[in-house]
Amino acid sequence: MRKILSSFLLMAVVTATFAAPVQVTVRTTRKQTITGFGAACCFGAMEPYASDTQPVRLLYGSQSKIGLNIMRMEISPNFEGDVRVAEWGNWDTPYDWQGSVPSAKIVKQRGGIVFGTPWSPPGDYKTNGTAAGGNSDDQGNQRGTLREDCYEKFFPWLNTFLAYMKSKGVEVDAVSVQNEPDWWVSYSGCLYTPEQQLKLVKNYAHMLDRETYKGVRLISAEPLGFDPKYSNALLNNSTAREQIDIIAGHIYGHPALGDLKTAAALAAKYDKEVWMTEHSSTDNIGDRLPTWHEQLLFAEELNECMLAGCTGYIYWYMRAHWSFISTGEAKYGEGNKTKNKLLPRAFVMSHFSKHVTGSTRLVTSRDLSSGTEAAQEFSAYIKGDSLIVMAIDTTATDKELKLKLPEKVKSGVHLISTGNETENLCQESPIEIEEATQEIIVSMPGRSLNTYIFMIERVEDAIDSPEVEAEPAWAKSDRAKAGCFDLLGRRMSTPNGFYIERRADGSTRKVYKSKR
């Protein structure tokens, strides 16, 4: 009996040692191109609001460790020249437009995207006469909506915001219709039904001054749970569809692979970008820092938004004990005693923001098809001569990951975050590859977030070009100009890697050209 038991234990050890690797195949099918990642610079967590630019300095641009490139700001319900700063709770003038200017300037200087979202139009435009949403005793529970006789004032009001920001040296890239139009609140807010938003956009969005503010794009209202009824109403109407450039929403209480994925499917049909513009996955944790498991769940949220079809992901506050930058308050634990210190969640975000921005997502054999939780999650991307594979493992067991790639790779780098480091939660090491291969086994430690970046060995047009897609949004204002552009729409003097070739007749095709 003892001999049999010993043999059994030996077999168990051998089995554990030589367990089959987790297998993932990366396919050639291309999905959306990723515009980027960001956070909000809003009143409250950014005090002193008008002068503290350290968060954006730490988070934004290629020179930062994190690499964010999209910043969201609130368009408070004011007009140019109205620079009153009210006490918190006076929602008629929560704060002036100047507050976001210093941070916005830095983001723009670093090549980033800045967009504004109204929590409410001016109170004079609304049925309850105040910027407050209406869900409070002092407002008599009157719901605040935009008065129909003020629909024609809405976009001219947004023009005054664009003019003010431009006068301060900030070219705003996009403006939204409304923050959470389906959420009745006591703070600054405004309710719209999908039909009311459609009427506003269809009949009046042409008043947004795109001629003066070149390149400004219009973002749909941003419903609380990414309710597709809001974006679908716009996209199914040809007039409204022409006016909307980006559909947006939040994922509070709704998994990314649910309503967001549904909304993104119709948006992809019409070549519209899809931005998740606000979520904070652990802002309810009280006076403690997020656990490493909660950080991995945040990584899964980022991954699932990409799998759902997102082209942009924007977190909520950039500074909070559950976010990217420390508040410096000792009550939140040892990791938060130094104000403006980078927190673990920032390094989790950096896996995506530093490396996935500007890439095109590729389909894998392990793409999630629903919101069902999985022990491991994966996604893959192509950017120039780089093939990027993301892998998240929430289990405690170290594993090997066998990757089957669509092209031969000649070298690679492994970026890993395990929660064990205290200063830099993104460690880098080379991936040893003896000869060019399409199959490779890499390590995937337990409870880890991994980014594998491979340099591709390929010849020109080695991968069949995808079918010619609808004209990219960035090219629509530049139809007359033929040439070569990268996937962010920038003209290339010497094309290499993936690029889009625009012919003189206006048609386009995606091309790969290797560096010589």
Task: Describe what this molecule looks like in 3D.
By secondary structure, this protein is an alpha/beta fold. The chain is built from ten helices and 19 strands. Strand 7, helix 8 and strand 8 form a beta-alpha-beta unit. Helix 6 packs parallel to helix 8 (256-269). It is globular. The N and C termini lie far apart (67 Å).
In brief:
This protein is an alpha/beta fold and about 525 residues long. The protein contains ten helices and 19 strands.
Estimate what percentage of residues fall within beta strands: 25-35%
- Total strand count, please? 19
Main beta sheet: 8 strands, parallel
Low-confidence stretches: 1-17, 80-94, 459-480, 512-516
- Helix content estimate: 10-25%
Global structural class: alpha/beta
Mean pLDDT: 84
Question: What is the molecular shape?
Answer: globular
Strand order in the sheet with the most strands: 6-5-4-3-2-9-8-7
Helical stretch tally = 10
Distance between the termini: 67 Å
Question: What is the ordering of alpha helices and beta strands?
Answer: HEEHEHEHEHEHHEHEHEHEEEEEEEEEE
Radius of gyration: 24 Å
Helix/strand layout:
Layout: H1 2-17, E1 22-33, E2 36-40, H2 54-59, E3 70-75, H3 101-109, E4 113-118, H4 151-167, E5 174-176, H5 194-204, E6 217-219, H6 228-235, H7 238-243, E7 246-250, H8 256-269, E8 273-278, H9 292-308, E9 312-317, H10 344-353, E10 360-364, E11 376-383, E12 386-393, E13 399-417, E14 427-431, E15 437-444, E16 448-457, E17 483-485, E18 497-502, E19 508-513
Parallel strand pairs: 1-13, 2-3, 2-9, 3-4, 4-5, 5-6, 7-8, 8-9
Antiparallel strand pairs: 1-10, 10-11, 11-12, 12-16, 13-14, 13-15, 13-16, 17-18, 18-19
Helix pairs in contact: 5-6, 6-8, 8-9, 9-10
